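Standup notes
- DV: blocked on the single-chain target, sequence here:
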Amino acid sequence: MNPIQMVDLKGQYEKIKAEIDEAVINCVASTAYINGAQVKAFQENLENYLQVKNVIPCANGTDALQIPMMAFGLEKGDEVIVPSFTFIATAEVVALLGLTPVMVEIDANTFNVTAEIIEQAITPRTRAIVPVHLFGQSCDMGAIMQVAEKHNLFVIEDNAQAIGADYTFQNGETKKAGTIGHIGTTSFFPSKNLGCYGDGGAIFTDDDKLAEKMRMIANHGQSERYYHSVIGVNSRLDTIQAAILDIKLKHLDEYAAARQKAAAFYDDAFQNIEELQTPVRERNSTHVFHQYTLQVKSGMRPRLQKHLKEGGVPSMIYYPIPLYRQKAFKEFVAPGFRLPVTEKLCDSVLSLPIHTEMTEDLLDYISNRVRVFFNHQ
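- DV (later): unblocked, structure below
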C-alpha cells in the first residue's frame, strides 16, 4: 500500500492532469501572469456557481477576511465576535487591524457557533460577527442573520472549509454557504475542497458598493491606475492559480460527493463504538467534509493516535488549543477566562484522512485500524 495521506493531492491531480497542464502552459504562453483573462473567467464562473453578484479574487484566505473588515470602516477598539475553536486567521486579522476579537463558545456537537451564543456576547462596542463554517457545514445562518439585523451588525462568513455546502432556510429557500452574510470569504489553500497549487482566496457579496470598495482595497486602494482613493493592500490571485481553480471548480460537486461517501463509510464503521462520537450534521446544512472529525472520549485520543500512526494511518488534531489561550491574544483575554466546551473539544477531537481519491479498500483499512484499537481495550 502507498503511504496514506490526509489529503491525496497527487491522486486528484493525476485524474485532471491533461486539463491542468494545458491550462498552465496557456498561461505561461500568454505571459499575462497577473490579472490575465483566466482570473476574470474564474471569477465569473464562481459567481455563477455560488449565485452571487460579486466575487473578488485575492491572494489568500487571510486577506479575504482582512479586506472586508477594512471595507466596513471599523474603528480601533470595535469588537468582532469570533468562535474560540477555529484556525487563528479568523481572529488574527481582527487584532491586526486594531479591533478587539471577542472569542466565544461553540456548539459541542456541530463545532459551529450559534445565534444564541453570539447574542450573549454582544455589547455596545460590537460591530461585526464572523461565523466560521467549520469542517464543511454551514452555521445556522438564518438565525445568525436575525441576530445581526436586530443589533445592526455586519456579518462576514468564514467559508474556507465549506465551499459548496448548501444552507436551507426555514421557508425552504436554499443558498450556498458564504453567500448569506453581508460578505463571505474563502481560502484556496491546496488542501481545501476547492484548492489551487499555491495560495489564493476570494470574497463574495451581493452588495455592489461593498464589492467596489473591496476591489479597490485589494489593489492598493486604486480607483483607477495610479489614483488611490483609500489605503489598501496588494492582494491578487495569480493567473495560473485562477486557471487551475477554474478547472477544479467544474469538479467541486463531484469532489463533495466523494467526501460525503467516505464520511458515510466511516459513520457506518464506527456506529457501535461508544468511545467515539461521529460528526453531527447541522439541521439546515449539507456537509462537504473538509475534515472528518471524531470526538474521542475517556482521554483515549493519545493512545488511539499512536495506534493509528503505528499502522501507517495519519491523523490530525484541529485544533489543539483554544484561540484565547494563544500567547498572541493574551491582551484580549481576562485572567482565568475559560470556555469548557472549547477546551473539551481541544482535548478530544481527532480528524481522519478524507479526500476525493479514497477507495473502499483504503477506507476499510483505516476504519479497521480504529476498530481494532477499541476492541482491544
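- Follow-up: The two ends are 27 Å apart (CA to CA).
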